[in-house]
Automatic annotation (TrEMBL):
It is a single-pass type II membrane protein. Transmembrane segments: none annotated. This is Cell division protein FtsQ. It is found in: Cell inner membrane; Membrane. The lineage of its organism: Bacteria, Pseudomonadati, Pseudomonadota, Gammaproteobacteria, Nevskiales. Belongs to the FtsQ/DivIB family. FtsQ subfamily. Part of a complex composed of FtsB, FtsL and FtsQ. The gene is ftsQ. Keywords: Cell cycle, Cell division, Cell inner membrane, Cell membrane, Membrane, Transmembrane, Transmembrane helix. Residues 45-114 form the POTRA domain.
Length: 253
């Protein structure tokens, strides 16, 4: 038997190739339709689970659930993720948050909590990013420094306090509070209750005076000092708790 080249050719005929391509296209379309159908059904499924993540100390998961429940009590595909994020970030102790869908029916919330740095004014706090927030009075930690100033000056006052606190930490003038009023006047109070009046001058320019001549002159009488007035080009003035006693002691030297 003689075999020809045509008999050895195993390549599919044009018709067979068309049939194979057609079958592949049908399978692909079927998969796409199935996937679309599953996605459509999934978006119509009610939210079944709320997953909250984060290292929470002062934020309560019950508070997060309370603000989110009205927003997620709907079909999975109808979630407004931005509205949910804003609701969580409106809670006083929330620094920032993210909200996302997790298929098939879970809402995942990640929360970063604020870290308190200082009290601000009468009722608020500053976090470590110098952003003010107002928690309930019972949630305000003890022992925080007291800062205050005009609206919009939070970062300036906080930064100034950080610098002064570091420079004066090991002196008789370690700081507990710092204030800037509407006129730009700076005033501070030490941990021992001594007032420091800086005026409108940059308080850091008075550090050398406090650590030098003021501390040398007052170190043995700090318990008698009411305030130190640093609003002088050269030198300082002292306000005594008992001016009469201070005068008598001065005359007796």
């Amino acid at each position: 038997m003689t075999m020809t080249a045509d008999m050895l050719d195993d390549s599919p005929s044009p018709m067979r190739r068309y049939l194979m391509l057609g079958a592949g296209a049908v399978v692909l379309i079927a998969l796409l339709v199935a996937g679309w159908g599953a996605m459509t059904v999934g978006t119509r499924t009610p939210v079944e689970r709320l997953q909250i993540e984060g290292q929470l100390q002062r934020l309560k998961t019950s508070d997060i659930e309370a603000v989110l429940r009205p927003l997620i009590d709907r079909q999975f595909g109808q979630l407004d993720l931005e509205a949910a994020k804003q609701a969580v970030e409106a809670l006083p102790w929330t620094s920032h948050a993210s909200v996302e869908r997790v298929w098939p029916a879970t809402v995942r919330v990640r929360v970063w909590e604020r870290v308190p740095f200082a009290r601000w004014g009468d009722k608020s706090l500053l976090d470590t990013d110098s952003r003010p927030f107002t928690p309930s009075a019972s949630d305000i930690p003890d022992g925080l420094p007291q800062l205050s100033g005009p609206d919009g000056k939070e970062a300036e006052v906080a930064d100034m306090f950080r610098v002064l606190r570091e420079k004066l930490a090991n002196s008789s003038f370690a700081l507990q509070s710092l204030t800037q009023d509407a006129r730009g006047e700076w005033a501070a109070t030490t941990v021992d209750g001594i007032g420091l009046h800086f005026g409108r001058t940059d308080p850091t320019t008075k550090i050398d005076t406090l650590l030098g001549p003021a501390e040398r002159a007052l170190k043995n009488r700090m318990n008698e000092v009411n305030y130190v007035d640093l609003r002088y080009t050269n030198g300082f003035a002292v306000g005594w708790k008992d001016p009469a006693a201070a005068k008598k002691a001065k005359e007796g030297r």
